[in-house]
Amino acid sequence: MFAGYKFASQEVSWLRRDVLLFANSIGIPAADLHFLYELHPRFMVFPTYPLILPFKLTDQEVVEFYDRNATNTIPGAPDLDLRYAVDGQRELTIYKPLPTASTGSKFELQNKVIGIYDKGLAGSAFDTEQVIVDSVTGEVYTTTRSVSFVPKQGNWGGPRVLMVTTIHFTLFQAQG
Fold this sequence. Notes:
Layout: E1 10-12, H1 16-25, H2 33-36, H3 53-56, H4 65-69, E2 86-94, E3 107-118, E4 123-134, E5 140-151
Antiparallel strand pairs: 1-3, 2-5, 3-4, 4-5
């Protein structure tokens, strides 16, 4: 039905400033200076930074995410109001660490629907996969599998089964 539906690819970009703000905003301690100081010889992107790129895309200003995505309809899918969605789970696979800035490169977000599941009166589960890819080389940097739950928006007659996955985190150790 709607499983496998692919949204149009979208460009993503970031600056070193974005990487620094992210590391500071999630409370990286000073002991991990290689995430917090852009002149550190091993300066690198914190591994979970790719999780925000589907929200940020190329914006350098505050993002009104819901307005931007209001027209992202999925053929045959129920009309869910994603303003009420909450994170259910995320699985992040890192194939290659992101560079500290996307300047000089071109990256894109490829987003597809794994499934939308009717959970009855409780609501619906929305399962997606986001891939960050170098648009020139085709090299995949990260894949994120996200399941969001949309409360009180169920009973639309869709499939009820959601396959539960195990979440694995692998962090890259700075070299040097």
